[in-house]
Amino acid sequence: MAKRTAKEWALRLAPLAAIAGLVIAFFALGWNRYLSMDLIREHGLNLQAYAQQNWWIALIAFIAVYALATASTIPGPVFLTLLGGMMFGPYVGALAQSTGATIGSVVIYYVYRTSIGSWLRAKFEADAGFMDRLAKGIDRNAFTTLFTLRVIPSVPFVLVNATAGMMAVPLRPYIIATFIGLLPSTFIYTWIGSQLGGLLRAGVRPDLPMLLQQFFWPLMGVVFLSLLLPIGIKLFQMIRARRIGATAA
Q1: Distance CA 23, CA 74 (A)
Q2: Residue 58's pLDDT band (cuts 50, 70, 90)
């Protein structure tokens, strides 16, 4: 494995540095205040009205903004998801969010893969140790592994993007698992978002405690995906492994 020069490393790491700089600027300029409930309280009804009058423009713009937010790894996409449900309804909102998040995830995947992912993968193969076996194991079950990570909301989204790029996992299952795996929890959030327009028109100024009280059971669905689903997946895998072992015997 040929050694790279300092200039080559600088070029490869430049996109990572750019993302880090964008995150720093995001907080330094105070843009983080826009990714909060204030976004919905102050601009939700106007954006909803705009989406009704300019549906395709609003939809494309929303997907682009969500992709940018995902690619830049800035916090607060959940508020964009709520806004997507308010603007487009739960079904289109969920598809739009998942599309934007998938596009942004692919950007992050390529940033990490082209900067250090390919180098790490080659190093794993050269060492032929645990990390090489782990990477190849992910390759063999890429869709199942990534889908499981995506469908559980408590797994850090950015961490999955970065790890997949650094492991240089196959791109096709990465894209499909990301898009499909995001839909269950996203639909819950966009459904909640679709209800916020009526609350705002009634003069209610929603905040997080109110959301927890008003939409307790839908939010319990997110908790189910985060806590109970991993147990269910693990039990399913154990039962499947036992059946395969019994059949082989």
Answers
A1: 6
A2: very high
Chain centroid to CA 56: 23
Q: What is the pTM of this model?
A: 0.77
Question: Measured between alpha carbons, how far is 13 from 25 in angstroms, rounded to an integer?
Answer: 18
Choose among 73, 107, 81: nearest CA to 183: 81
Read off the tokens for 244. 């395969």
**Surface-to-core class of residue 236, CB atoms within 10 Å of its CB (0-12 exposed, 13-18 middle, 19+ buried):** exposed
pLDDT at 50: 94
Q: Do residues 62 and 96 make contact, with C-beta atoms less than 8 angstroms apart?
A: yes
Query: What pLDDT does 205 receive?
Result: 78
Non-local CB neighbours of 214 within 8 Å, separated by 6+ positions: 195, 199, 206
pLDDT digits (tens, 9 = 90+) for 63-102: 998 998 887 777 667 888 999 999 999 999 999 999 999 9
Q: Is 166 exposed, middle or buried (0-12, 13-18, 19+ CB in 10 A)?
A: buried
Cβ atoms of 139 and 169 closer than 8 Å: yes
